[in-house]
Write a structure and sequence with these properties.
The protein has 218 residues and is α+β, with helices and mostly antiparallel strands. The chain contains 6 helices and 12 strands. The chain has a single domain, classed as 4-Layer Sandwich (Glutamine Phosphoribosylpyrophosphate, subunit 1, domain 1). It is globular and about 50 Å long.
């Protein structure tokens, strides 16, 4: 690909397969979740891949696509958000998402192969924004990326309701990732879940997630 060409839809889709990430907005915060399987075609290249990154005190990003591109974007965002905080001008969730959107759009002719969910909590409450590889941004109540997203969406759109609590949201996203693991070959291994509320960023332990999953089978 040369610098004066954009990726076709088929090329972009090729690199945005093999994972499931989800995010939902709740009345008292947001919840993000992912699996931990990284694939290279039919090869499972990593069973413990990180796909949810904390980038600020009450802000996180889920990643799907090329690992190198995603990690580069995370480093950029952490630096920009740290600088804003040093200047005593911390960014809102929407402002941080807009910054990331501008970064992606500036590379639209040679794009980062990444599909991202930005989730966080600020003075206006919890927010979820979904971003595509060339900077398209939209606020969502429910969002999912990756090859398992059709399964995850089916679970979340069935179970989601307005004003649900973070605890209810935690159960729902865990069920969504668990279902994607059952039906999507590119999704698997460990489930990771984080919550962000006015109290900050919290990552659930493996035991907490295991207990939730066992509840589905009861």
């Amino acid at each position: 690909m040369t610098n004066d060409q954009t990726l076709s839809h088929e090329q972009v889709e090729k690199y945005l397969k093999g994972t499931t990430t989800v995010g939902i907005s709740c009345k008292d915060g947001i919840v993000l979740a992912s699996d931990s399987r990284a694939t290279m075609g039919y090869l499972i290249s990593d069973k413990e891949a990180q796909k949810i990154y904390q980038v600020d005190e009450r802000l996180a990003i889920t990643t799907a696509g090329l690992v190198g591109d995603n990690q580069s974007l995370i480093r950029i965002m952490r630096a920009q958000l740290a600088l804003a905080r040093m200047e005593e001008k911390p960014l809102t969730v929407k402002a941080a998402s807009t910054l990331l959107s501008n970064i992606l759009h500036s590379r639209r002719y040679n794009p980062f192969l990444a599909q991202l969910i930005v989730g966080g909590f600020d003075e206006a409450g919890g927010h979820i924004f979904e971003l595509d590889p060339v900077g398209g941004m939209s606020e969502k109540k429910v969002s999912s990326t990756g090859s398992g997203s059709p399964v995850a969406y089916g679970v979340m759109e069935t179970g989601y309701k307005e004003n649900m609590s973070v605890q209810e949201g935690t159960d729902l996203v865990t069920r969504a990732i668990h279902s994607a693991k059952e039906r999507d070959a590119g999704t698997g291994n460990r489930i990771e879940v984080v919550t962000i509320t006015d109290k900050g960023f919290k990552k659930l332990t493996e035991d907490q997630i295991k207990k939730i999953v066992e509840g589905f089978k009861a």
